[in-house]
Design goal:
The protein is of the alpha+beta class and about 500 residues long. Helices cover about 70% and strands about 10% of the residues.
């Protein structure tokens, strides 16, 4: 019998297995809960009825006592406030009177008789009470009618007390009858719960035993696979249901994972080799940038030198040395800085000095057509910046912007620092550039500076290589000017 049930269990789908488990658990729990609730209801319902009857009698007796006190206060001091309280008490007493149980089959002969006397007596008392309230103290027979109402109140109070006593005695009788059963009730509920639990454990063990065993095997083999141990035998399941398909897929996955781990290890070794090659390539790019920097420092535009020397010759003929001397000093400083500087970084003060010499020479060349301004706090002069960072930007502004405009233009260099970020802006009012050319330059920046030209491209690559955060941006409007902005923070470690 057991083997036949087990074979049938293996043939069932997982969905049907789950439904069978849920139905079995639900049925056993439902039966257990129903029995427990039924037993508890029998006792609790009887106690609730007694408590409700006691409460109804108590409320009626209490409201009747309150009405008596307010009735006496009203007769002693007939004010509007006392009459309002009195009328409210009368309505409350009437409501509690109507709530008293009054069904012969439920309350019995004795309680029914007492309740009947109270209801009829209260109707008579109600009429007498209202009669006394409507009379004045000086009317004939007022005192007699008043004491008649008091006697009726006493009569009602006696019967209300008697009704409460009867209800209490009924409760005591019920408790004495049920006390033995109430004492056995916790043991009965525990016994029912334990029996239901045992039946549930036996049923679940039979239904889920094979499933749990297979899941334990899957967990054990999975733990070994996590440690790259694929030596465990394949998991076995006797059926072809969803669990059987899961076990079959797991076994296939185990073998596929083993092959994948081997392939991944080979791939990792290849990636390590490629990473080393990438580091070597990055080092070569850094060296290439430094070589380009040396190229920039070793060359000055021959056309620029030719025009400058010609201008110096003409001015030397017109004057007797002062201007010529200043220009010779400026160009000498440029040549000397270009040839002697071997470090990749210089103080900002030195870079600004070179730029001032360079712009001074062009101011002599263009006259009123060329104007320049530098806005920089002296506190930033000792900040280290990449060497020859400003001069190429100023040279681009002069050659490609201001020199092409008939009226010339101006260059404004602004330098600020916000926290660890140094911000440099070189703005000119030169000829600007078209949208197509600006888009081309921005695209070149997105491709790591390829195609930017020696000056701007070298600055972009050095900023990206030297600093953890570095940014070079450019904006231009044709016939209005160009702005190049550079931002960088801490050096890379």
């Amino acid at each position: 019998m057991g083997s036949r049930l087990l074979a049938l269990w293996y043939k069932m789908t997982l969905k049907k297995k789950l439904y069978l488990i849920i139905i079995s658990v639900g049925f056993i729990m439902g039966v257990s809960i129903f029995i427990n609730l039924k037993v508890a209801y029998i006792f609790i319902n009887g106690a609730r009825v007694i408590m409700d009857d006691n409460l109804a009698c108590y409320k009626f007796q209490e409201s009747l006592e309150t009405e008596r006190e307010l009735f006496a206060n009203l007769l002693a001091n007939h004010t509007a406030e006392n009459e309002t309280f009195y009328q409210a008490a009368c309505r409350e007493t009437k409501a509690h009177l109507n709530e008293l149980p009054y069904e012969y089959g439920q309350i019995g002969e004795e309680r029914y008789g007492v309740t009947w006397n109270i209801k009829n007596g209260y109707e008579t008392y109600e009429k007498q009470r209202d009669k006394v309230v409507s009379m004045g103290p000086k009317q004939k027979n007022y005192i007699k009618e008043q004491y008649k109402a008091y006697n009726m109140q006493k009569y009602l109070d006696i019967y209300a007390t008697r009704l409460t006593k009867i209800v209490l005695m009924d409760g005591n009788d019920y408790y004495e009858v049920q006390i033995s059963a109430l004492q056995r009730m916790p043991y009965l509920l525990v016994a029912i719960s334990v029996m239901a639990f045992l039946v549930l454990v036996v049923l679940l063990r039979f239904i889920t035993g094979s499933v749990v065993t297979t899941l334990e095997q899957l967990a054990t083999v999975s733990g070994k696979i996590e440690k790259n141990d694929f030596s465990s035998p394949d998991v076995h399941w006797g059926g072809t249901d969803e669990i059987g398909r899961l076990v079959s897929a797991f076994n296939k996955m185990k073998h596929a994972t083993k092959d994948y781990v081997i392939a991944t290890e080979e791939k990792r070794q290849m990636e390590e080799t490629l990473y080393r090659h990438e580091l070597e390539r990055a080092e070569l790019e850094k060296r290439f940038s430094m070589a380009q920097l040396q190229l920039i420092k070793s060359q000055l535009n021959p056309h620029f030198l030719f025009n400058t020397l010609n201008m110096m010759t003409r001015m030397a003929q017109m004057e007797e040395a002062p201007v010529t001397e200043e220009m010779l000093v400026a160009i000498g400083n440029l040549l000397r800085y270009s040839l002697r500087t071997s470090s990749a970084f210089e103080p900002l003060e030195q870079e600004l000095k070179v730029v001032k010499d360079y712009m001074y020479i062009h101011q002599m060349r263009f006259g009123d057509r060329f104007r320049w301004e530098i806005s920089c706090d002296r506190a930033l002069y000792q900040e280290e910046v990449p060497v020859f960072m400003l001069q190429p930007l100023v040279e681009n502004a002069v050659i490609h912007g201001i020199s092409e405009k008939e009226n010339g233009g101006s260059i404004h260099i602004k330098i600020k620092k916000n926290g660890d970020i140094l911000w440099i802006s070189v703005e000119d009012t030169g000829n600007g550039m078209s949208r197509e050319k600006l888009a081309s330059i921005r695209h070149a920046m997105e491709t790591k500076g390829t195609g930017l030209g020696i000056g701007l491209g070298n600055i972009y690559r050095r900023i990206s290589a030297y600093y953890e955060y570095g940014k070079v941006s450019i904006d231009s409007i044709e016939h209005k000017g160009t702005v190049v902005e550079i931002e960088f923070g801490r050096k890379k470690g």
